[in-house]
Automatic annotation (TrEMBL), chains A, B:
Keyword Transcription: yes
The entry's DNA-binding region: 29-48
Protein's UniProt name: AcrR family transcriptional regulator
Residue ranges crossing the lipid bilayer per the database entry: none
Keyword annotations of the record: DNA-binding, Transcription, Transcription regulation
Single GO molecular function: DNA-binding transcription factor activity
Record PANTHER family: HTH-TYPE TRANSCRIPTIONAL REGULATOR BETI, HTH-TYPE TRANSCRIPTIONAL REGULATOR RUTR
HTH tetR-type domain mapped to chain residues: 6-66
Gene source species: Gordonia humi
rRNA-binding is among the record's keywords: no
Pfam families in alphabetical order: TetR_C_24, TetR_N
Alphabetical list of InterPro entries matching this protein: Homeodomain-like_sf, HTH-type_TetR-like_transc_reg, HTH_TetR, KstR2_TetR_C, Tet_transcr_reg_TetR-rel_C_sf
Length: 196, 196
């Protein structure tokens, strides 16, 4: 593509994500990121003002990516709470299995996000939790979900899906599709969905 | 107590846990740990050979602590799978709410454990997972738990409880006891326990 550089923004982000997974944000230097992207530390600063800005780009990509996928899934799922929860959990699981490294940074490096960018990251995380919670609460209101603890149920569903990024391996025996089927069933069990 | 030093082993571990929570293992220096414990870096080496040894002590304390509490709970719970799962989840939740900082290190710093000590840490983690899995599998065998996916159910129960260390605040409106009640209900829902 015209204007595309061989070692650009995406190479920097890929190198940073890999290193943040291995050693965390504070354990990674801008020099390490440059080395991993096969460029000089100076040329990193053509793209990002600081290591903190790189982290915020990755966090934004991870949280915004998951939110977009899950929101779109809910909207396309039709009207029933159980259909919406299935679609939501499916998208959440697929995201965490297919964007593992981004997801690990998203799940572990909130503590490292500083300054005004922090508000944006926290807002995205809260938005994601609200999407799950609204689907669960509506199911409870309509007596489709019998759980007495919708807030804890919501958190349990979110963390069950999120933890997939910590152990999922692409070369394992199960497909992402099969994994998503199973976690759909788990999510419905958590809210105590009993088909009428 | 005779022989107890004002700034000893426990102060070092407390300082290290606090810093590992804030900045991660790689982002924390032995000098930082010493400063937090109000001692010199040199005197740290009276107690620990390296920062890695400090990490392994904390990981061991966290994983061994959780394993001891949950094993004891299962043994005292009596014979039914649902009674065992209730006791197990209760102990797991109480541990993660009352040992938050240790638990965060235990959950996030496995990547940083190096050398032969790694085998011990991995063995403890696997032992913990096996305890949950055995209780769930036995419930399924005895048709007390109806889940079709006992492995994913096990993982979901573990991560639901584990994630409590990321958000629990001691000064919140809920007691640890009430929290444990709710997560007991969630764990039974995940395995699809239906009283006969």
């Amino acid at each position: 593509m015209a204007g595309e550089q061989p070692n650009g923004r995406d190479d920097i982000l890929d190198s940073a994500v890999r290193l943040f997974n291995e050693r965390g944000y504070y354990g990674t230097s801008t020099r390490d990121i440059a080395k991993g992207a096969e460029m000089t530390a100076a040329s990193i600063y053509h793209h990002f003002a600081s290591k903190q800005e790189i982290l915020q780009s990755i966090m934004g990509r991870a949280l915004q990516g998951a939110l977009s996928m899950t929101r779109a899934a809910v909207i396309r799922a039709g009207g029933t709470p159980d259909g919406q929860l299935r679609a939501l959990m499916r998208a959440w699981v697929v995201f965490h299995a297919t964007h593992r490294r981004d997801a690990v940074v998203g799940a572990t490096e909130l503590r490292s996000v500083e300054g005004p960018g922090r508000d944006r990251v926290v807002a995205l995380r809260d938005e994601q939790e609200a999407l799950f919670r609204d689907v669960v609460l509506r199911g409870v209101e309509e007596s489709v979900f019998a759980t007495g603890f919708p807030y804890e149920a919501t958190r349990s569903i979110i963390s069950a899906g999120q933890s997939i990024c910590m152990w999922w391996r692409d070369d394992g025996p199960m497909s992402v599709d099969e994994l998503a089927d199973r976690y759909e069933a788990i999510a419905l069990a958590i809210v105590e969905y009993h088909p009428a």
